[in-house]
Design brief:
Elements: E1 9-12, E2 19-22, E3 30-31, E4 41-46, E5 58-62, E6 65-69, E7 78-81, E8 90-95, E9 102-107, E10 119-124, E11 133-134, E12 137-141, E13 145-150, E14 158-162, E15 167-170, E16 178-179
Parallel strand pairs: 7-11
Antiparallel strand pairs: 1-2, 2-3, 4-5, 5-6, 6-7, 8-9, 9-10, 10-12, 13-14, 14-15, 15-16
Length: about 190
C-alpha cells in the first residue's frame, strides 16, 4: 500500500502561544501545549517508535525544561528539569534505539561555558512527571549541540551536529565520542 503522510504539523514560536498544532496539513494552526511553562519552544519532536503502552508521544524542548505528552497520559504535559536546575536550551531530540524507554536530547547556548549546560543527555520517559522531576544523565559534556540523529539500524550510534566542533559521533551509546570533520574547517557550527 501507499504510505500516507500525516496531516499533523507543529509550529514553534515565542510569546503567549509558543507551540501550535495543525491537523489539516498546515492550513490552520491552533495554540497547543497549555501546560508548557515557558515563552520559547526551541524544538518539538514526535517519537517515531514509542515504548509499549505509550502512543502519540510528543516532546518539546524549551528554555525552562523538557516537556512530554502522550495519549497514555491523557495529553497532559509532563515536565523534566535539568539536574542543575539551571535554564536549559534543548535544541533536538533523538530516539535511544538501545533503550525504548529513553530518549536523547541536545542542549547548549553558545553564550554559556558551564559544561553541564552543554552536550547530550539521556532522559527516561518515565522521568517526566507533573512535579518538576530532575532527570537525565549526561553522555557528552562541554560541547554545545544543535542536532542529534540516531538510527535503529545501529542502535548504539549517535551523531551530533555541534555548535563549534563540527560533527561528532558515538558508536557505543554515548560512552565515547570522536569527530567526523575530515575536509571541514573548524570551528564549525553544524545544524
Amino acid at each position: 500500500g501507499l504510505n500516507q503522510r500525516t496531516k499533523t504539523w507543529f509550529k514553534t514560536t515565542g510569546g503567549v502561544f509558543p507551540l501550535q498544532k495543525s491537523v489539516d496539513g498546515a492550513e490552520t494552526f491552533e495554540p497547543w501545549g497549555s501546560g508548557i511553562r515557558g515563552l520559547y519552544v526551541n524544538t518539538v519532536w514526535v517519537h517515531p517508535c514509542p515504548p509499549q503502552g505509550m502512543t502519540n508521544v510528543v516532546l518539546a524542548g524549551t528554555e525552562s525544561g523538557l516537556y512530554m505528552t502522550a495519549d497514555s497520559h491523557d495529553n497532559e504535559w509532563l515536565y523534566a528539569r535539568s539536574v542543575s536546575n539551571a535554564p536549559i536550551y534543548a535544541w533536538s531530540f533523538a530516539a535511544d534505539w538501545a533503550d525504548p524507554n529513553s530518549v536523547f536530547y541536545a542542549l547548549g547556548n553558545p553564550a554559556w561555558s558551564e559544561e553541564h549546560l552543554m552536550g547530550v543527555y539521556r532522559v527516561g520517559l518515565d522521568d517526566f512527571s507533573t512535579n518538576y522531576t530532575y532527570a537525565s544523565s549526561q553522555v557528552l559534556s562541554g560541547i554545545g549541540v544543535w542536532k542529534l540523529v540516531t538510527t535503529p539500524a545501529d542502535p548504539l550510534r549517535i551523531y551530533a551536529g555541534t555548535q563549534t566542533n563540527g560533527v561528532m559521533v558515538s558508536y557505543d551509546g554515548g560512552d565515547n565520542w570522536t569527530t567526523l570533520n575530515d575536509g571541514l574547517t573548524l570551528p564549525l557550527s553544524v545544524t
